Request: fold
Amino acid sequence: MQTNPRPSLLYLVVGGLSYPVLRLLYRLTWRGVERLPAVGGYVLAANHWSSFDPWPIGMPLFPRRYLRFMAKSELFWFPLGPLISACGAFPVRRGQRDQEAIDTAVRLCREGHVVVMFPEGTRRQKGLRKKHEARWRSGAARIALEAGVPLVPAGIAGTDALARFAKLRVAFGPPVSLDGLSELPVDEAARIATDRLREAIAALEESLD
Reply:
């Protein structure tokens, strides 16, 4: 019987300390967890408002799943680098096609991890939603297609108003259909899958309004 990778000790400690803060102070709620694969790796892709986004998207799965996050390579300096690595992060060089980061993500998915991606590529600024949607990256779709794992959408709301203690909400959707895409050229398959993913995330966001 396949089992999921166990979270690191530091991941469990940070999650355990964060859980009551998010649930009580920020009144975190979520729905759709039953749609997520219970066993095996997948790519979990969401909209991106804040650097705090990994917390609300990870808490609904805590402590059952070990979420792995791409983090910009500039963060991996001592002593921060070893700490965030132990919490599940791995580096990516932004602004370029980082094949090493992609290979790492594919390997983690195949090993049964949940790899979290923010396809918008950067945090949104208020009022610029349309601009950022037009610049979505196809990395999440490419990784899911190459690894042969589900591509799961999620919507996050409230992390753009943390200073006002806004209520945090997360909605998970069913995996995006990748049927037939393996027969297409890689770039075309990734583009189609990314378009489907963007539509699914947008629908989940709207459902949180």
